[in-house]
Amino acid sequence: MDQKDKDIIDLLRKNGRESTTMLARKLKLSRSTVQDRITRLEEKNVITGYTVRFNEDFARRQISAHVMMSQKPKYADQIFAHLKKIPQIRSIYTVSGIYDLIILIKAETTEEIDQTLDNIGRLEGVEKTASSIVLSTKFEN
Q: Is the CB of residue 63 less than 8 Å from the CB of residue 137?
């Protein structure tokens, strides 16, 4: 992957719906060159999909919570399968330390966050959780 590929990826991260023609103009490349590079990046699984970025006002209204969770190891697969089905859960990270997972929850109300936390706590094999509501985001890329 060279600098032009990195530039294409950077532009697509900012706007995944950007047309190939517009990307080509911004990068001073031909449209076919940009399309070929995108196709190659997709074939190499560097780009595996495109996503939605929310409007800043909508995103600001979302309440975020980080949940640290300890689990019994023999239940890890079962717990992970259940967590993936909860729509308010946006990310799950395995971590070192006294907790096993950090879970990112996003919801429109504190009641929805509370209900999600209750659902997590009721899963068999969950030992303990500690949660923190995000008050503000200083930087996100």
A: no
The whole-angstrom separation of Cα 105 and Cα 11 is: 27
pLDDT digits (tens, 9 = 90+) for 69-121: 999 999 999 999 999 999 999 999 999 999 999 999 999 999 999 999 999 99
User: CATH classification of 3-43, choosing from 2.40.128, 3.30.499, 3.30.70, 1.10.10?
Assistant: 1.10.10
d(CA 47, CA 10): 11
In CATH, what is the architecture of 56-133? 2-Layer Sandwich (3.30)
Q: Identify which of 66, 50, 51 has the alpha carbon closest to the alpha carbon of residue 137.
A: 66
Tokens of 87: 């729509």
DSSP label at residue 91: E
**Separation of alpha carbons 50 and 90, rounded Å:** 16
Query: Phi-psi region for residue 12, left (φ > 0), alpha (ψ -120 to 50) or beta?
Result: alpha
